[in-house]
């Protein structure tokens, strides 16, 4: 893929960029390695001051970077502004809490170990490579970069090739805030150059958010090099509605949960599993609300759903829906590629999906919801767990016994009760099964790329 801004609302190429060649890659890695040594002499207070300054710059740049994100990947402009604001919040969160999260852990009874003292200490690893996707051009990067830099690590970013302006904005943000030169840098390279960068001995670890095949590839390279990796891959999250649920709240949240970011989010609810007692009413309300969403130019304030980010992504989504409809499923609303320019796909609700259909097994990365009817809790849990993914889940019930069962038996990295899955800086985030391993955010996220060093003294 060319490194270019290709506006998904128009299909037009707006800007192109020359990839970094071998010498520029080496220059940037050399500066990153120098920054490793520079950061070792800084304190948490130093880094916190620089991080807060960078967050202030991001707030100042909100409208400019929001417009860039919208033009590069099509998210509604209001959502782009909110993403930039969330990034600044996440940066300040780690500025406030990094020292607390990485404080030495002192063993309370060193005498039992034959020691005068014993403790463990978190130390940075060095250069961490981040391979990031286009769907949240800032947030996916910041939720790695903020904890990594606050821990004293150095970040090197390989961003998706269709969001180069976002990547280059991040290239300078932390240095503008005061971090030593080279502490965070962007490599404008294609996926074919990732292996060489990851195999470079100066790079100590890697984090990837993206597709399952990309995750398998990067993890295999890292494994061969005995380097730490964290993966956040796809999801096919269930949204379960039981008879005791507040149906109006569940429907309103379901619409947002399926169409946020134009439906292009790993943690979007995708499979709507509804108890038979409330299925018909939920389907009626949900379908009407999905069909009423305003689709259009993402730079217009009133737009609720913009285009998909790439032509290939729109084609793949359309193929999944067409396969289901050919196999006997029903489109309650949407279900067809509209005429006109841009890579738009309408909010769509599909019922009658069976196990033989691709839409049942594969992740729909766009505003397409599948509806399932179940008779009881057992059936809901079984259907929720049938997927190979295990990122998150949303469950709607006021029954305490049902809540306990869902929390305990759903196979996922998170269960949200009577609410929509959202990534918060304060909460650990990640999945199981084919959704990846490791955790981002909270204390767990900053500790992933640290060496936990044990110290014992006689």
UniProtKB/TrEMBL annotation:
InterPro entries cross-referenced by the UniProt entry: Ald_DH/histidinol_DH, Ald_DH_C, Ald_DH_N, Aldehyde_DH_dom, ALDH_GabD1-like, GABD/Sad-like
Aldehyde dehydrogenase domain: residues covered: 3-455
Pfam families from the UniProt entry: Aldedh (PF00171)
Gene Ontology molecular functions: aldehyde dehydrogenase [NAD(P)+] activity; succinate-semialdehyde dehydrogenase (NAD+) activity
Keyword Ligase: no
Entry keywords, A to Z: NADP, Oxidoreductase
Recorded superkingdom: Bacteria
Family per record: Belongs to the aldehyde dehydrogenase family.
Protein name per its UniProtKB record: NADP-dependent succinic semialdehyde dehydrogenase
Source organism: Lacisediminihabitans profunda
């Amino acid at each position: 893929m060319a490194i270019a801004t290709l506006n998904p609302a128009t299909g037009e190429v707006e800007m192109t960029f020359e990839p970094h060649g071998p010498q520029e890659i080496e220059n940037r890695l050399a500066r990153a390695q120098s920054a490793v040594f520079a950061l070792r002499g800084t304190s948490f207070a130093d880094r916190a001051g620089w991080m807060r300054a960078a967050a202030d710059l991001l707030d100042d740049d909100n409208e400019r970077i929001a417009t860039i994100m919208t033009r590069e990947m099509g998210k509604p402009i209001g959502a782009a502004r909110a993403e930039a604001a969330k990034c600044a919040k996440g940066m300040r969160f780690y500025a406030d809490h990094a020292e607390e999260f990485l404080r030495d852990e002192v063993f309370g009874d060193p005498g039992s170990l034959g020691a005068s003292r014993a403790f463990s200490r978190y130390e940075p690893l060095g250069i961490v490579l981040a391979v990031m996707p286009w769907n949240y051009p800032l947030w996916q990067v910041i939720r790695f970069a903020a904890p990594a830099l606050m821990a004293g690590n150095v970040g090197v970013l390989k961003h998706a090739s269709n969001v180069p302006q976002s990547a280059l904005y991040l290239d300078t943000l932390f240095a503008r805030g005061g971090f030593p030169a080279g502490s965070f840098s962007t490599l404008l390279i294609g996926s074919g150059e990732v292996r060489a960068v990851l195999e470079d001995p100066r790079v100590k670890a890697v984090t990837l958010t993206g597709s399952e095949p990309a995750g398998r590839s990067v993890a295999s390279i890292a494994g061969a090099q005995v380097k730490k990796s964290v993966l956040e891959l796809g999801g096919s999250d269930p949204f379960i509605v039981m008879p005791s649920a507040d149906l109006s709240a569940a429907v309103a949240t379901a619409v947002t949960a399926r169409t946020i970011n134009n439906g292009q989010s790993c943690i979007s609810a995708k499979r709507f599993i509804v108890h038979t007692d409330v299925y018909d009413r939920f389907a009626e309300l949900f379908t009407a609300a999905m069909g009423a969403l305003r689709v259009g130019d993402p730079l217009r304030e009133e737009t609720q759903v913009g285009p998909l980010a790439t032509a290939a992504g729109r084609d793949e989504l359309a193929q999944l829906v067409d396969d289901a409809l050919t196999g006997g499923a029903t489109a309650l609303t949407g279900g067809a590629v509209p005429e006109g320019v841009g890579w738009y796909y309408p909010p769509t609700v599909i019922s009658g999906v069976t196990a033989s259909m691709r839409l049942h097994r594969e992740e729909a990365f766009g505003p397409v919801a599948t509806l399932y009817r179940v008779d009881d809790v057992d059936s809901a849990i079984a259907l929720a767990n049938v997927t190979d993914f295990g990122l998150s889940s949303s469950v709607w019930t006021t029954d305490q016994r049902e809540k306990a069962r869902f929390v305990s038996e759903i196979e996922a990295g998170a269960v949200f009760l009577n609410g929509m899955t959202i990534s918060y800086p304060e909460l650990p985030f990640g999945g199981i099964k084919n959704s990846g391993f490791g955790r981002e955010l909270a204390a767990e996220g900053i500790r992933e790329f640290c060496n936990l060093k044990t110290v014992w003294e006689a």
